[in-house]
Amino acid sequence: MKVIGKQTNSRMCFICGMDNPVGLRAQFYNMEDGSVVTPFRFREEHQSFPGRVHGGLVATMIDELGLRALWIQSEERMGVTMSLETKYRKAVPYGELLYGIGRVVRETSKFATIHAQIQDSQGQVLAEGTSKYILLDPQKIAEGVDEHAEMCYLIEDDVKELPL
Questions:
Q1: How is the chain split into domains, by residue range?
Q2: What's the CATH number for 3-150?
Q3: pLDDT, tens digit, 9 for 90 and up, residues 98-116
């Protein structure tokens, strides 16, 4: 599937923070079909039991994909999670290439509902979820924080397509 743009990364976010030593450093791509996609790998440090990722970290990725799906229109859009439902279909492995995919499925002027999933490299859905966000002005979310200083990395690359 064709990539149409790339989103910025933060400094310390667990999912996308480039300066976070225990994080995933995931990078997110806006796709031609209106979804957002991240190819990523959980690491052994993210396990619950040997061979599988902790369910809370799987839910964390599902949550991140929600906001990232909103950013397809503009990275100026912000919101906070009101609810998150995650369904675990199969054990999520660490050390393997995975794909996170998010898509806005419903939106009003104040709220958005996003469906997200984590797939393995063969396209099998390992986990999926629905998150609901309330859309807010960034200053109402983190008063006094300069979101542009935090979301300061745009990692240039030549990725034009992802195998989905």
A1: 3-150
A2: 3.10.129.10
A3: 999 999 999 999 999 999 9
